[in-house]
Design a protein that fits this description.
Chain lengths: 307, 624, 320
């Protein structure tokens, strides 16, 4: 029950509102944001790496002479060589193909988690913040409840019961990740609904649904985008952690987490088996965090960086 | 393994408990028999020798890092009947017979082999003599009364007002009273002599009384004693706080839950009679500490880091290329009676067709599995062609490769395809066969998820089947939960037992796990008998059931061995009735035992006989 | 404030009830302990089945009957028995494993709390200095690395790599309680892992909070008055900058005390987190619920405590 987190979030939101709510021309605002983001060099580099990695997750397996589940593509347990750049695993599968295919699955799961989380969180947060009253009270209560339940218990139980496919895993992770974004969106809606442009729309006879989605929602895209970005990183880590506990996606589908789980017995002699997928997970997550940070700064012109 | 009820042990051992799931590995029976690789050649001259003759160092506590902690020490309680408990008790209580590394019985507390004679009316009587001078660790004599007490406790009942003959209310918690419940007479003739009469011959009789209880510390009334034992065996302490006396080389000392269990040397030990043990006297080490390290990788790390002296886990490929090549460690492997298999659901839409089962058996390439997973670890310990029999293992003299002889398991994709086409399947665009009525040939294969070696095995076979146009999807459930969720779920068993008319026959298609055999392979029949709880495959054959009864009551060893081979053809080939071929044994599963040779001068390198665990010859360990 | 506290406590009760209901129903759906244990054992005495069925009321609907049965027992202090441990009372297990978790959670928390202040404040005060970049970079990596990856790397480098140089001090696994030195040798690596998980996030948080204060008007006023920077930072800024950290501390401490599943798994530490995961895999219902309720209870109560402290420290907040 992180009650105190709410005022903190709304404080940030309030800052955002001051800066952006008055903006009428969405285009110029987004161009400004874009420019500010470009000034954030680290974020730009991070974004490039992310894009590059993501593309490579599809390109490398496609170009590889081996398939990810090809048993005996090489001599088992080989160190990296010209033939197998990342070496081979215990049953002679090409690790490079597996790591990049694993990245593909991981990123797909993470993207699905991020999107699902955002949709659930945004809808609940929007309804909660916009309507207020008992609806808000009920939804906030539910949000709090999801927050107090130890996430891992539910993750484990659900994964044990329903998990195994990549999509099942994604939905399980999403089912537990939405409260954060929901709180942020709720805070934004709480503030926006008292803004002049909302009052104006209401006076003009717009229905609540229209006000929510046509008038307020576009204004919350910025923070939602930041959160969605950060969620991709979180989801990659959660997926790998579930795999570490053997509850992730079932083989032969490789994910970065599965690969790390398979490699953990060999850290002494074949550390590279762990370091390649582990490094990529860390790299993705790091880039996502830098990008999210940059986005936040870019969206919030009053942020410290510009001072 | 020193257990009375083979079936139960077989099951529970094979069925794995779950605690280690995080590490991705669950404890599995790591049963072994040495295939002569490192069998010790000590002579069987028994008797207690002074420890100094073998031990040049009598100090040090042996640390064994093990993945699973016993739920409690009440081994017989069906809820706790786990290998880890058996392995711990192994060092504490001796039995009438022990099992050696060749998976044969040897007299342990007995002075010599018991003599069993047929009485002519179908009943048999055995006369036995205990070794002289046997004592418990608290100094009391171990006598024939203790053996009688053991029998009385196991069979003790309480009167509950109902008909005692048809509905006895047993007190002592034990899963299976087979071999005890047919005892019609137990006579103690002297402190060291007794005779037992069974109403009928039971092929597994030597497996009974694998532990003898100390009567002197429990109530004289068997029913009261049984109730006491149910309580006190859990912590292995008497109400006074003293440990329960032992007859083995170690005495229970202390148990810090979640951390470690300590055993200390029994200075009154009667001596080890096992032909495998080099040391016939007291243990060299002062004690054993079993440290619970739940994750297999963490255990290997603990061994490498010198925090443990021995580990015994399921085979991990990490062992093979890391520990085996390091001079600081000695890695020993032994092939045992545990075998991995693919079991087919006879009520599956596709698999109910014998041609499809043949196709799967033909497409399977056992040699490739062996080469990829087992040969790197075990070399020539296991035959490269895999296992072809579910009763006799490849290192036992009576082994016959039934599946190999029938041409199965050779990876013949073309022959598999021909069978499928014969069954009316046609190859689809993506190379997977389809049937006009049954649809696409997709089969689910499940196992205990998180078991690295099994998952790899599964993936290799998945690729083999794909080659032959059979699509395999993986349907694992983590850890021991798999069994209750899939092949042994209520609905699945109901389907199997009802002949496919009740329950849910679509819970699983193919299951991959290990069964455990023993010196008496007849226990395996239980998995195939009509309506038995172990038979989830749905196999039902009156001829098999009848023949199986005949085999078990065959007194002649050679005849009985041949009879078991005959039984196997019912299940690993289509069999005399053409309804078999639902068992695809893959390989014996060796146990893996590693120890820190830089610390230990001598070790019991043939840890096993039959799932006995690393403490079976604990007397042999000695520090530098 | 007392009224506020009481109101919060009352409000927390339905929340805890609802949360436990959800966990209870989900875990019961997760599998049947009888199926997990005895489905394969037809030679077992049927009374063994019946005993388990009675123990968990398995013949009744999960909700509300079974839940109510569990709740009634739980509320009356009967936490049930653990099937995976020979039916030992769950209460004993909670105490024993709770103590083990405490042994790494408390030292970790102390390091985290102090470290977050030092790194966060330094980073903010010396914004854009080399030190700030190093700390910020390290925190980003800390946030981005999966815990188990870090734990494994730690084992790899500290134990195996250092061991090859002949220096051996730390244990890779298990808890040792034979004296303080043994405890330190066994607990250090898990503590470092726990610290990394939270310290990175908390330092970043503390940096942001400090920056916010440093850039606020009253600090500018203080500076304008010509007060030495040291006085400005330590007397004026720090007090307010630390307040938001209280909440984060509370949540982290609650999380640490309820057991760290991953860290305890890697280092084979017999704590609550390890026990929880064992219980989940083995369908040990009472044990699983006890650990979960403990975690929920800790989160809720530490939050409340944090809010109350927050109110005491920050006069701008009123409880009404």
């Amino acid at each position: 029950m992180t009650d105190v987190a709410t005022p903190r979030v709304s404080e940030t939101a309030a800052v955002l509102i001051e800066a952006e709510a008055i903006t009428t021309e969405a285009k110029s605002w987004s161009r400004q944001t874009w420019e500010r983001l470009l000034h954030h060099k680290l974020a730009v580099v991070a974004a490039f790496i992310l894009v590059f990695l993501t593309i490579s997750f599809w390109v490398v397996p496609a170009l590889s002479p081996y398939s990810f589940d090809q048993v005996g593509a090489g001599v088992p347990r080989q160190a990296p060589s010209a033939k197998h750049w990342f070496g081979t695993d215990q049953i002679g599968r090409d690790l490079m193909t597996r790591v990049f295919t694993g990245g593909q699955f991981s990123i797909r799961i993470a993207a699905l988690v991020a999107i699902t989380t955002t949709v659930i969180g945004a809808v609940i947060g929007a309804i909660s913040g916009f309507f207020g009253g008992w609806i808000d009270a009920t939804l906030s209560w539910v949000t709090n409840m999801v927050l107090v339940i130890p996430a891992l218990v539910i993750l484990l139980v659900l994964a044990l019961r329903f998990g195994s496919g990549p999509w099942a895993i994604a939905f399980i992770i999403a089912a537990l990740s939405w409260p954060r974004i929901s709180r942020i969106v709720r805070g934004l809606f709480l503030s926006y609904k008292e803004q002049d442009f909302v009052h104006a729309a209401r006076a003009a006879g717009a229905r609540p649904g229209r006000i929510m989605f046509r008038h307020i929602l576009p204004n919350t895209f910025g923070p939602i985008m930041v959160e969605t970005t950060l969620n991709v990183g979180a989801a990659i880590i959660i997926e790998s952690t579930l795999s570490f506990l053997s509850l992730g996606v079932q083989p032969p589908v490789p994910t970065l987490g599965n690969l790390m789980n398979e490699a953990k017995g060999a850290i002494d002699s074949r550390a590279y088996e762990l370091l390649f997928p582990g490094g990529i997970v860390t790299m993705i997550s790091l880039c996502v965090n830098f990008l999210g940070d940059g986005l936040r700064d870019a969206l919030d012109p009053t942020s410290r960086r510009t001072r | 393994m020193k257990r009375t009820n083979w079936r139960l042990v077989a099951m529970l051992a094979a069925l794995v408990t779950v605690l280690a799931a995080c590490g991705g590995t669950t404890e599995e029976t790591t049963a072994t028999t040495t295939a002569g690789t490192q069998g010790t050649t000590a002579t069987t001259t028994g008797g207690t020798e002074a420890p100094t003759e073998y031990c040049t160092n009598n100090t040090g506590t042996l640390i064994w890092a093990h993945e699973q902690e016993p739920p409690d020490m009440h081994l017989d309680d069906p809820n706790n009947n786990l290998t880890t408990t058996a392995w711990t008790r192994q060092a504490i209580w001796d039995g009438l017979y022990g099992i050696d590394a060749t998976t044969s019985f040897f007299p342990e507390l007995l002075a010599e082999e018991g003599v069993v004679t047929e009485n002519g009316d179908g009943s048999v009587t055995g006369t036995f003599k205990l070794r002289d001078g046997l004592v418990w660790s608290d100094g009391d004599d171990l006598t024939a009364d203790d053996v009688k007490f053991t029998f009385d406790v196991i069979m003790a009942t309480t009167a509950d007002g109902e008909d005692e003959d048809t509905d006895p209310d047993f007190v002592y918690l034990i899963g299976d009273r087979t071999g005890y419940d047919t005892i019609t007479d137990f006579t103690v003739t002297s402190p060291t002599e007794f005779s037992i009469t069974w109403s009928a011959f039971f092929a597994g009789w030597k497996a009974t009384f694998s532990e003898v209880f100390p009567s002197h510390v429990f109530n004289a009334d068997p029913a009261t004693a049984a109730a006491e034992m149910n309580e006190q065996l859990r912590e292995f302490k008497l109400p006074s706080g003293d440990p329960i006396p032992s007859s083995g080389p170690m005495v229970f000392s202390n148990w810090q839950r979640g951390v470690q269990l300590d055993l200390v040397r029994n200075d009154l030990y009667n001596g080890n009679m096992s032909p495998d043990a080099q040391n016939k006297g007291l243990a060299c080490v002062e004690g054993v500490t079993i440290r619970y390290v739940a994750d297999t990788d963490a255990q290997i790390n603990a061994l490498k880091a010198g925090e443990a002296h021995i580990i015994m886990t399921q085979p991990q490929l990490a062992f093979g290329d890391e520990l085996a090549t390091d001079p600081n460690f000695t890695v020993a492997a032994a092939a045992g009676p545990v075998f991995e298999h693919w079991g087919l659901n006879l009520f599956d839409t596709h698999l109910s067709d014998p041609l499809v089962r043949e196709a799967v058996a033909l497409a399977l390439n056992k040699a490739q599995v062996m080469e990829a997973l087992y040969t790197p670890l075990f070399g020539d310990l296991l035959p490269g062609e895999g296992l072809g029999n579910t009763y006799w293992m490849s290192n036992q003299p009576d082994y016959e490769n039934h599946q190999g002889d029938a041409g199965y398991g050779l990876g013949d994709a073309a022959a598999a395809g021909a069978k499928l086409e014969e069954a009316g399947y046609t190859k689809g665009g993506d190379g997977i066969y389809e049937h006009p009525e049954r649809g696409r040939l997709t089969l689910r294969v499940g196992t205990t998820g998180g078991n690295a070696l099994r998952e790899l095995q599964q993936q290799i076979i998945q690729a083999q089947m794909k080659e032959a146009g059979i699509e395999i999807t993986i349907d694992n459930v983590p850890g021991g939960a798999y069994f209750g969720e899939r092949p042994f779920s209520e609905a699945a068993l109901e389907c199997a037992n009802s002949g496919g008319t009740a329950g849910n026959c679509d819970v699983w298609d193919i299951t991959q796990f290990a069964w455990v055999g023993g010196p008496w392979p007849g226990g395996q029949s239980f998995s195939y008998r009509t309506g038995s709880g172990n038979n989830t495959y749905g196999f039902s054959s009156e001829a098999f059931d009848a023949r199986s009864d005949e085999c078990d009551s065959t007194v002649d060893d050679a005849e009985r061995a041949a009879c078991y081979n005959e039984l196997d053809t019912y299940v690993t080939t289509l069999g005399p009735e053409g309804n078999g071929l639902f068992m695809l044994p893959l390989t014996q599963k060796p146990s893996f035992f590693g120890y820190l040779s830089s610390a230990l001068a001598k070790a019991a390198v043939a840890p096993d006989a039959n799932s006995a665990g690393p403490l079976v010859n604990v007397v042999d360990y000695m520090f530098n | 404030m007392l009224i506020y506290a009481v109101r919060r406590i009352i409000a927390a009760i339905p929340l805890i009830l609802a949360a436990t209901s959800i966990v209870f129903v989900l875990t019961s759906l997760g599998g049947d302990p009888v199926a997990a244990r005895l489905a394969t054992c037809t030679t077992c005495d049927p009374s063994a089945y019946q005993r388990l069925i009675d123990l968990y009321d398995l013949d009744k609907p999960v909700y509300p009957q079974r839940y109510m049965g569990w709740l009634t027992d739980f509320a009356s202090g009967d936490l049930g028995v653990a099937l995976t441990q020979g039916e030992r009372p769950v209460k004993d297990i909670m105490l024993e494993r709770g103590k083990n978790t405490f042994l790494i959670a408390v030292p970790a928390f102390i390091v985290i709390a102090i470290g977050a202040i030092i790194f966060g404040v330094y980073s903010a005060v010396r914004q854009y200095s080399v030190g700030d970049y190093v700390i910020t970079g390290a925190s980003f990596i800390g946030i981005s690395m999966p815990t188990f990856f870090f734990g494994l790397l730690l084992q790899f480098f500290v134990v195996f790599t250092l061991q090859k140089t002949g220096w051996k001090f730390f244990y890779t696994s298990g808890l040792r309680l034979e004296g303080f030195v043994e405890y330190v040798k066994s607990a250090t690596l898990p503590i470092i892992t726990l610290v990394l998980v939270s310290l990175a996030g908390e330092s970043r948080f503390q940096r942001a909070a400090t920056l916010e204060v440093i850039n606020s008007d009253y600090i500018r006023t203080a500076r304008a008055k010509g007060l030495p920077e040291r006085t400005v930072i330590f007397k004026h800024a720090l007090r307010n900058a630390l307040i938001p950290l209280v909440t984060v501390w509370a949540l982290d401490f609650a999380g640490l005390l309820s057991g760290a599943v991953i860290t305890e798994t890697i280092f084979a530490w017999p704590g609550l987190g390890r026990e929880l995961i064992n219980a989940i895999f083995a369908q040990d219902l009472d044990l699983m619920m006890a650990v979960t309720v403990f975690a929920i209870f800790l989160t809720v109560s530490f939050n409340l405590i944090a809010d109350l402290i927050y109110g005491v420290l920050d006069p701008r907040i009123r409880f009404d």
